[in-house]
């Protein structure tokens, strides 16, 4: 398969890690409020959209909304689909702040929020709604302050202001907690009282008022440039799963798709964002439901084939996706090797992870092909992965799905330095770099 795509694989010096990651958004007005570490940069989206002449842009894994927001800033209509409540909330806060938010009212409400934190009492009923994986995340004074913040925000009638203040609170939870998002893990500081094996030692935690003040000031500072950038534009942010939402959209609705789906690397968004989800009211049952609804990328995910069969029936896109998955040689070869080595895998469920991931991505690719206008393009950022020393060429398999669906694979641009493997795998299988890529697929003209 490599030989088939070899002429289209090329290393691009100008594709830096900063560009394809959140690093590039660290200074970007609005996008810097919520540090969505799985995001890519607005600069990357801008570069990809330049010269496409696109009017309509879709991101089916929208995260914090970088694609749809950037498209809007360029005068295009952006649409994002995102299943986790956090990303759409952050994107909506940016759009709200850019369209009609009164600076004076914001200043009053944000000062009111900080003042509310110095109250002597708090409402027990508004204490942080912990789930088992978030217990002991905050010092006691922060638990109380968070309850005061929730009470203050619940009294604000203007939904624009309450969205922005809620986002501000959510965006500082990690900073004021004993946790840190660290690669694929949520690490814990032993000060939390939890038994932790790999130690994290945060310096002394800021008080909620201090962390919030910084974020609220950052928001105020960004308001003028946001109005310039996104004022007048109303991108659409859809709350839901792409596996369900794409099917409802009419064919040939979009000129360009710019997206980065979850990678097939066991990354569990519900664990990494446990504090934020709990703050937004997710209880244990909703956590489990969300984990199953997300694109399969963890060893906990069960097959969605039956559920998708009920939803899609005999839709050609669904039948095509199943056939592509079941007949994709490189994928089936990788699955056979994993099955033969099932006993020595660190977790046998990586076999179902790989199978589910590609079934769902085949459906996404097939639906995106239907949704693209002739001549339209898909740009996708994704990483290859490795299990049991076996590289899964995600780039080639997905590009094969694209070609089978009727798209031309124009290029697979690779970052110069791919990702190494986990330290556990390095010990057993040696280090070999995995490709980290941006793919460009195009729908032929008419
Ligand atoms: C790599 S991130 C994309 C980040 C985005 N490019 C940004 O700049 O913020 C993948 C996103 O897909 C979302 N996701 C996972 N499964 C989904 C599904 N079935 N439908 C919609 N979004 C999903 C995750 O919550 C995550 O935000």
Descriptive notes:
- It is built from 18 helices and 12 strands.
- With 446 residues, it is α/β, with parallel strands linked by helices.
- It has 2 domains: 257 residues, Vaccinia Virus protein VP39 (Rossmann fold, 3-Layer(aba) Sandwich); 133 residues, no CATH class.
- Strand 4 and strand 5 form a beta hairpin.
- The longest helix has 23 residues.
- The radius of gyration is 22 Å and the shape is globular.
- About 2% of the residues have low confidence.
- The site of S-adenosylmethionine has 22 residues, from strand 3 and helix 9.
Summarize the structure in short.
Helices cover 44% and strands 14% of the residues. α16 packs parallel to α17. The structure holds S-adenosylmethionine.
Low-confidence segments, given as residue ranges, are: 420-427
Which CATH architecture of the largest domain would you pick?
Answer: 3-Layer(aba) Sandwich
For the termini, the CA-CA separation is 28 Å
Which CATH first-tier class of the largest domain would you pick?
A: Alpha Beta
| Overall tally of structural domains | 2
